[in-house]
Amino acid sequence: MSTQTAMIACTALLLAGCSRPTALQEIRDEGVLHVITRVAPSIYYEGRRGPTGYDFELAKRFAEELGVGLRLRVADDNSEILSVISKDFAHIGMAGMARNPQLASQFQTVATGIKAQSVVIYNRDVDYPSSLAELAGKTLHIIADSNHVDPLKQLADQHPDIAWQVHPGLDAAGILARVESGELSYAVVSSNELDLNHVFFPQVKEAFALGEPRELVWLIPSAQDPSLAEAAKHFLAGLKEAGTLAQLSERFYGHLDRLNYVGARTFMHHVKNRLPKYESLFRDYARDFNMDWRLLAAIGYQESHWRPNAVSPTGVRGLMMLTRNTASYIGINNRLDAEESIQGGAKYFRMVHEKIPERIPEPDRTWFALASYNVGFGHLEDARRLTESAGKNPDRWMDVKEFLPLLAQKEWYTKTRFGFARGNEPVAYVQNIRRYYDVLARIMSPAVPEPVADRPDLAGVRESPATESRDDNPGTELRASLPNALGIIPPTL
Length: 493
What we know:
By secondary structure, this protein is α/β, with parallel strands linked by helices. 45% of the residues lie in helices and 16% in strands. The strands form 3 sheets. Strands 9-6-10-5-1-4-11 form a 7-stranded mixed sheet, sandwiched between helices. It has a two-stranded antiparallel ribbon with strand order 2-3. Strand 7, helix 6 and strand 8 form a beta-alpha-beta unit. Helix 15 (338-355) crosses helix 16 (364-375), helix 16 (364-375) crosses helix 20 and helix 17 (377-389) crosses helix 18.
């Protein structure tokens, strides 16, 4: 076709009202939402149930809302994500970065509902810095293309003596590990990544924040028209109004304050010295009763710190701290025998779990079962009724945990069927076990890895091979190297 003929054809098309489809229409036509991300507990990782993470859960729901598949590409670091998005080689970049003027000038941004701030951390063996002035002559260490360069540059005018070093090959966990070992004395990380990882690095302390919390955002290529960004904003606004954002935030971040410095060190000591004596028992009986052995071990730690001869003043005893009535009911003769106790705990938890309505999705169903294991099913149901009467969701743990403590107050428990209960205890109980499970899931393998083909929860997620991408640009292999770190309950529960 000649140039003149082509121009005439294009003019005719324009006059006929034809134009290039919007970015949103292109996604629907292809049937795939292309997302590039990196492995991090705050964004995306491979859990036993398959891909998960706060941002991933949002992206999966967004793809479902659009009626398309979700195809992930996993980058090595934020630098790669920024490069791919700037070249319009993916629809959305999930880098865990905060909105700032530079990002806003380069990309379309969509807030995800999480805020974070840059915080200075240090090794416990060095002097505590209370301000940037006390870090004069010291070096702060940060990851490349992070949230932290912008606030440091803004503060450099008032503190010209501060210096920082960028580490392109490290992520936040890598920075934390080096501060933990003493290789680095001072660093800056995002507050949400510190919260998720702090229990593994007890030698790391938080000093102070650099500025106020800022919204974390998805990145969308500036070359695209605004249709995708507007659709994402509208979708996330709907999730916020429905309470789903708050529920996801609680699911991933709502229990991270359960282990302080002493508790973390004690737990890790017992993982090394006590758990090996009972690990095979936890594995065997968890398998017998179709549950994750690491959850069973977390219950055992909460009950007795893995002490088979533990006895409470109220008469519960053994590694799983069973009452006499419970032991008799489930056929356990010797509560002080570690094997019988673990077997009894697994059997009783399975019985309790099966009483929780099946309509309640995981992981909330397991959290309700833990609360029932601690306070009793009747009291849990009382709290759920109070939750419903207040106009909140009785099938959602984040709502019910607000009402359980009311069972200790006369003005509330007199309105219930089963009366008084120390309602704060099951809340603490569940949150503690969630945290212990986090740690065990991060450092211990599950009983039997599940093949991808047997995971129906992956039906809407297409995993990209290393060379597959939206525009045939070189990709990176989708890795499954990071275990479940955020309290996601396996599908067997």
